[in-house]
Amino acid sequence: MDALPGGTRPPSLRGNFAWTIAGNTVYGAGQWAILSLLAKLGGGEMLGQYALAVAIAAPPAMLSHLNLRAVLATDIKRCYPFRDYLAVRLGATAVSLAVIAAIALLSGYGGTVQAAIILMGLALGAENVSDLYYALMQRRERMDQIARSMIARGVTSAAALGITLWLTRSLLWSVAALVLARLAVLAAYDRPRGTAGEERGSAGISARWAIFRTALPLGVSLMLVSLTANVPRYAIEAKLGTRELGAFAAVASFMTAGAMVINALGQSATPRLARYFAERDLRRFRGLSLRLLGLSAALGAAGVAGAALLGGFVLSLLYRPEYAAYNGLFVAVMGASVLSYTGAMLGYIMTSARAFAPQMPLLAATAATAAAASWILIPAIGLHGAPAAVALAACVQIGGAVWVLSRTMLKLQAPAEAAA
Predict the structure, then answer these.
(1) 327-352 and 205-239 helices cross at what angle (nearest 10)?
(2) For residue 103, which phi and psi values (nearest 5 degrees)?
(3) Stated pTM of the model
(4) 397 burial class (0-12, 13-18, 19+ CB within 10 angstroms)?
(5) At what angle are helices 385-419 and 327-352 packed, to 10 degrees?
(6) pLDDT tens digit string along 24-83?
(7) Domain coordinates in residue numbering, the chain
(8) Which helix (H) or strand (E) covers residue 252, if one does?
């Protein structure tokens, strides 16, 4: 096993992946529990309002995220102190909260939805700050610490929202409780664990500006990824109504759960892929990348099989019996996930190679494809138009990512071949 800088031996990739799977599984179960509680205790309309709030707040939050976790975790040479990364994250988060509040107030939705959008912005902002502390843990390859935080966040968020919803039957009080739960985990666990052993210095404004310039293409890319995922939801709400949006959100949560596994794979492998690429060890870089892509496609295929065999039963159990009628949509969504997971994993591989800037135009094309397909297909064929739009967008993402990686690796090979 390769040693980390300083001579310490990292946990095994298999061990890190096991911990990350555990963390993502429990966190994903918590997200499922939230949707299930909203469906069972609040009804389809409340579930749709929650899904709409998430869909509207997520793109600005993802822009402010700037994917600083990837930038910091792949900063193997520690070019900038953590305090400068944190300053960029806090400033960007503050701006995003103001933008989310403005969007909510100008949206024309009712007061409940407007307030839910603002509260969801706060919840996502807390997650963004936690995520930066995760970057420190990830750079040390301590995915076990990240997993423990995710487990705590998933359990406390679901419990806080569920208890509050049971007592009040109010969406707003329930989302407010979720915000407080996430802030508590951030303060009690993420900050002390993340900063342990880190230098407390700062390189100043110039370093922060350099970090922001490096990360901005990634922030735009994350926003475009979020728009790609949420544009079908906008079209569903506009053309079919909030209740149908709630039904789609319930079914699509299974695709999101699989994406958490993809994130576990990608996040666990990112530091090692980054080292292989920095060391110009393209043989091991390619080998690990191909294994990750194979696992991503296999996960999507397993989801299709599971939906076909058990979809109606699972939807009835987790939500309400009437949701079994959406089993065909469930199979279609999981079919689209095969392509979506492959595209997402290619994104992690590009980031490991620090191919940041090319991701922005590629994901803009992907989001544009999702938008055009959603607004054409959803009015024409109903909810099944959403997974079709996701699949078409993923095809664009996969093709572009393969092209970007091919060019990036050719550029890396050229100096070595010239020297030889």
Answers:
(1) 160
(2) -60, -45
(3) 0.80
(4) buried
(5) 20
(6) 889 888 988 999 999 999 988 999 999 999 999 999 999 998 888 878 877 767 778 888
(7) 13-415
(8) helix 242-278
